[in-house]
Design goal:
Blueprint lengths: L11 H14 L27 E4 L1 E5 L4 E3 L1 E6 L11 E6 L4 E6 L5 E4 L7 H7 L3 E5 L8 E10 L3
Parallel strand pairs: 2-9
Antiparallel strand pairs: 1-4, 2-3, 4-7, 5-6, 5-8, 8-9
Length: 155
Amino acid sequence: MRAPRHPRPLGRACAVLATAVLVALGPAPGATAGPTVRACGPHDSCAHLKPVDLTAGQATLDVARLTLRNLNARALDPASGKPVRGVAVRFTTTDGRFLAEARTGRDGVAAVDARERVGPRAARELTHGYDAALVGDGVHDPAVAHGSVTLATSR
């Protein structure tokens, strides 16, 4: 198991956003508490963090089987329009229930099916869509996007 990386200093606005995202997502299964966000001091520069445009697409909820497929998000560099590769994207219901996590590929897209069947309460929540969050990794700013969910029935 790799030792946890200590986060680089973040600006006050970044720290507030990252804290809000982390609180909304809640702990990952099996997660342990540790330092998550540290604000920049008065003489630190936080301009090194790169912004990311994150967009979430459309997923499909099979209401008969209570399975969620094709959670997806695309991360792009807003200045160049190039894909942002290798960053983790966490997918949750709008109330913060963990659904899955995936890394962006060469095209900047993270796509995954939910790791477990969803319960009736989560299925009801998914009618409002889902959230995709790229939590800052010390290189990129945190970003959040909202995706839609269509309902389908299996045959």
